[in-house]
């Protein structure tokens, strides 16, 4: 009886696994088809200077305009794409379109856009890919965008899990692009390690802004002080209120991003503001 029970469970498990694999395979096929038929788009969220409210950068955030599901946020398909090399195709698409878009905005308005940068999120597997450096170089060449106007956002996990990440980051920085460490504080990088990392900017994760607990506030202040000591710029993510912005100004955080300063908007909507 126990035996047959065990087998029953194994079969159920088997079936569940099969279903999950089928769902994932279907999602991957859909993403691939979506890339081919232009269903993805980038929305742009401003990063502002805390002191004067000037626009410094746009973060490009991918969305999927799915024919049946409507607008699908990245958290619902990027993790699936990250399971395979498909994420490299998605990343290449994002690099091409984001650099092209900023180059076009610069041609439309050289005064207003000359120093603005565009930030692109790069997944761990893509950073480990031997062709990433060439892809970045090609996107810059094709768009005509200066390298210093492209920011690559990576997360801490990348640096720990991928031995090649460090080499690739060096090559990318040699091209002249800037590297930003995204969601800082949620992983395992210690403040001391910051000194050794191949990054230019630190993005403090939005969870730190949520809390008004004094200990968390001190921690944010400490991260900013350390970042400055290592010559890193700091962006605070997830700014939703004037109070949070005031607090950031008081502790010397120079850059901020969040709904209070501007939500991610389509390229078209972004142009209207400009
Ligand atoms: P992220 O890179 O940390 O991007 C910031 C996320 O926080 C965005 O969500 C943005 O819309 C959201 N956000 C910005 N300000 C606020 C705020 O004030 N309050 C709140 N509650 N949220 C705010 P989104 O666009 O849904 O992207 C989620 C994540 O998906 C990104 O986190 C990034 O890890 C990933 N992602 C987005 N686009 C791409 C892409 O093109 N490639 C890759 N590999 N990943 C991407
Ligand atoms: Mg990001
Ligand atoms: Mg982030
Ligand atoms: Mg994130």
Keywords:
binds magnesium ion, 20% strand, binds ligand C2E, Diguanylate cyclase (GGDEF)-like protein, alpha/beta, 10 strands, single chain, 274 residues
Major β-sheet profile = 8 strands, mixed, barrel
Mean pLDDT: 91
Q: What proportion of the residues form beta strands (DSSP E)? A: 15-25%
Give me the count of strands. 10
**From the alpha-carbon coordinates, what is the Rg to the nearest angstrom?**
21 Å
Note the overall shape: globular
**Helix fraction bin:** 40-55%
Quaternary state of this entry equals single chain
Report the order of strands and helices: HEEEHHHEHHEHHEEHHEHEEH
Bound molecules: ligand C2E, magnesium ion
What is the straight-line distance between the termini? Answer: 72 Å
Order of strands across the widest beta sheet?
1-2-4-5-6-7-8-9
Helix segment tally: 12
* Structural class by secondary-structure content: alpha/beta
The poorly predicted ranges are: none
Domain EAL: 24-274
Protein name: Diguanylate cyclase (GGDEF)-like protein
Organism: Kineosporia succinea
Explained architecture:
- It comes from Kineosporia succinea.
- Residues 24-274 form the EAL domain.
- This is Diguanylate cyclase (GGDEF)-like protein.
- The chain has 274 residues and is of the alpha/beta class.
- 50% of the residues lie in helices and 20% in strands.
- The chain has helices spanning 2-36, 78-82, 86-108, 110-113, 124-128, 132-143, 156-161, 165-175, 207-210, 214-229, 242-250, 267-273; strands at 40-49, 55-66, 70-72, 117-121, 150-155, 178-184, 201-204, 233-236, 255-256, 265-266.
- Strands 1-2-4-5-6-7-8-9 form an eight-stranded mixed β-barrel.
- Strand 8 (233-236), helix 11 (242-250) and strand 9 form a beta-alpha-beta unit.
- Helix 3 (86-108) packs parallel to helix 6 (132-143).
- The protein starts with a helix and ends with a helix.
- It binds ligand C2E and magnesium ion (MG) (3 copies).
- Residues 45, 61-62, 73-75, 78, 91, 94, 121, 123, 153, 182-183, 206, 238-240, 257-259, 264 line the site of ligand C2E.
- Ligand C2E is lined by residues 45, 61-62, 73-75, 78, 91, 94, 121, 123, 153, 182-183, 206, 238-240, 257-259, 264.
């Amino acid at each position: 009886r126990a035996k047959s029970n065990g087998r029953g469970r194994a079969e159920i498990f088997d079936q569940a696994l099969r279903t999950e694999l089928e769902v994932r395979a279907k999602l991957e096929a859909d993403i691939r088809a979506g890339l081919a038929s232009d269903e993805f788009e980038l929305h742009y969220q401003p990063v502002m200077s805390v002191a004067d409210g000037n626009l410094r950068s746009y973060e490009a955030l991918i969305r999927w305009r799915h024919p049946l599901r409507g607008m699908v946020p990245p958290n619902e398909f990027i993790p699936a794409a990250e399971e395979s090399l498909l994420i490299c195709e998605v990343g290449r698409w994002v690099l091409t379109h984001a650099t092209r878009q900023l180059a076009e905005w610069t041609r439309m308005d050289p005064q207003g856009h000359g120093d603005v940068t565009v930030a692109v999120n790069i997944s761990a597997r893509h950073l480990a890919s031997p062709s990433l450096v060439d892809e970045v170089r090609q996107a810059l060449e094709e768009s005509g965008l200066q390298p210093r106007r492209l920011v690559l956002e990576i997360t801490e996990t990348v640096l720990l899990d991928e031995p090649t990440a460090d080499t690739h980051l060096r090559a990318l920085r040699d091209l002249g692009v800037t590297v930003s460490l995204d969601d800082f504080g949620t992983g395992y990088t210690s403040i001391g390690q910051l000194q050794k990392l191949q990054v230019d900017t630190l993005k403090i994760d939005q969870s730190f802004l949520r809390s008004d607990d004094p200990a968390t506030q001190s921690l944010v202040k400490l991260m900013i002080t350390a970042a400055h000591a290592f010559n890193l710029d700091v962006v605070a993510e997830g700014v939703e209120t004037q109070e949070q912005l005031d607090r950031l100004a008081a502790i010397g955080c120079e850059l901020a991003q969040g709904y209070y300063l501007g939500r991610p908007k389509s390229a078209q909507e972004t142009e209207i503001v400009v």
